[in-house]
Amino acid sequence: MSPTHYTWSPLRCTKCVDPDAQFVPEDSDCPDSLLCTKCLQHGHLPYITTSELRGHLTPGQVLGFHDGVMHVGTPQTDTDNQAPEGLTAYTRRVVELAESKVQRATWKPGKASHLLVLRSSGPHGPLGHITIGARSGKVLRAELAYGRSGGRREYAEGTNAVRALLAALPVTTCPPHCQAETPEACAGSNQR
Ligand SMILES: [Zn+2]
Ligand SMILES: [Zn+2]
Description:
Elements: E1 6-10, E2 23-25, E3 33-36, E4 47-49, H1 50-54, E5 62-66, E6 69-75, H2 89-101, E7 104-108, E8 113-119, E9 126-133, E10 139-146, E11 153-157, H3 159-168, H4 183-191
Antiparallel strand pairs: 1-6, 2-3, 3-4, 5-6, 7-8, 8-9, 9-10, 10-11
Helix pairs in contact: 2-3
């Protein structure tokens, strides 16, 4: 199982709902007792315990201190897997094509370029990534490998070459616990 990744944000106060409110430890010796930095200004008692705060979380969320301020960590799921802004219409079609051929496509947005990481659940399916220029929104290149243990590799440079590579890619049929010994044997045995 892959480790859960969390998106951290300062925990909001539901009592005073002040956007600048932060929960800080009341006393550094007692991290379970917290106080809201804004509640008093709004006429509320600022004290709260971590166990009370946990009651406000949605399932899967966790609490943690970052720089002395209580934050809530929300597990990243596929619904967070939004395409970055600024992709060209042609890029979006290439992305759709890639998503139709692999079982999992995950965005890794970056400053200079974005990566669309492609994964398959079976051991012989394609895996790799497509690189997209952050400023241009255009597909730059793609790198694919077949099989986790060093199978065939393919590389394409430029939007049209990447599109052609993806178009030629068979829809992955390799099941999660595939017993085939090579990617070629797998493709053969799963085709019919
Ligand atoms: Zn408050
Ligand atoms: Zn297989």
